[in-house]
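I hope you will forgive my troubling you with a question about protein structure. The matter concerns a single protein, recorded as an amino acid sequence and a row of backbone structure tokens. Please examine both parts with care and let me know of anything in them that strikes you as inconsistent. Here, with my thanks, is the record as I have it:
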Amino acid sequence: MTGKFISFEGPDGAGKTSVLHAILDRLTPMLGEQLVITREPGGRDNQVAEAIRDLVLSPAYPAMDPWTEAMLYAAARRQHVVETIRPALADDKVIISDRYLDSSIAYQGGGRELGAERVADLNQYATNGLQPQATIYLDLAPEVGLARIQATRQDEINRLDVEALAFHQRVSAAYHDLIAADPDRFWVIDASQPLEQVVADAWDAMQHILTLPTEA
């Protein structure tokens, strides 16, 4: 594999979608067909993983067992890796994924209290150990993120958004544990800043990760 795999992570309400759109608007003209944009759960043109996404995020299933949820995420990720990510890496593509394995460790391992190590082991098996070379993490206090969701995303709220503040605090703590354990992989961006500055910081990180020419 000779390509580059980059993930974007962050708690709910951190503005990942807005920041990613701005970054991709700059990257797409530069990389063209070399760039692969994908997301989790689900994947680029990935019918199996997208079907699992619809199930696992639907607010229609509040009684879903936490381990069922974790295994569904791992199953979707397995299909995503096999069908999308590994073929793109083999073709020397640059893959940018909105969420990846760290999300399961944070949300199911931390938020659902299944245990970060146990969820990591499940996903290591599902992915054959495939990790991103770099992860851009948008850091935001959970209470701020939840307030943003309530103010701006009432029509897009999913099963995880409606969890109590304590759940999201555990998610944030699990993310910070991951960053502390692997600081060389993570680029941490302060997402409490104005959007323009968050985008600027994320773009600076992307330039370093991909060794792109810096702007004058």
Observations:
- The chain is about 55% helix and 10% strand.
- Strands lie at 4-9, 35-39, 94-98, 134-139, 186-190.
- The longest strand covers residues 4-9.
- The chain has a mean pLDDT of 93.
